[in-house]
Specification:
Blueprint lengths: L2 H22 L11 H13 L10 H21 L8
């Protein structure tokens, strides 16, 4: 492999990395399908907010409370503010 083709390959690799940066920094869009990793990360976030998928007795209140906490944390993360706890 000549030095010119190595340089061209390096430029191509750098261009690919640079072009993929905006795709990884896109905000959450609920109308778009989620990947398996995104679904798992979302479940981890909900469970950290207190949601228990096995708690069917307190289901609506449990999910609504955790949903409010997750929404507040996402809004705080989007604005760069520190999240406050929701009681």
């Amino acid at each position: 492999m000549t030095s010119l083709s190595r340089a061209a390959l390096g430029v191509f690799a750098a261009a690919c990395c640079f072009a993929s940066l905006p795709a990884s920094a896109q905000p959450y869009d609920p109308s778009q399908p989620m990947t398996r990793a995104q679904v798992r990360a979302d479940l981890v976030e909900w469970r950290a907010a207190g949601y228990d998928p096995l708690d069917w007795i307190d289901y609506p209140e449990n999910a609504q409370r955790a949903g409010a906490i997750v929404a507040q944390r996402r809004a705080a993360h989007a604005t760069g503010a520190m999240p406050q706890s929701v009681q």
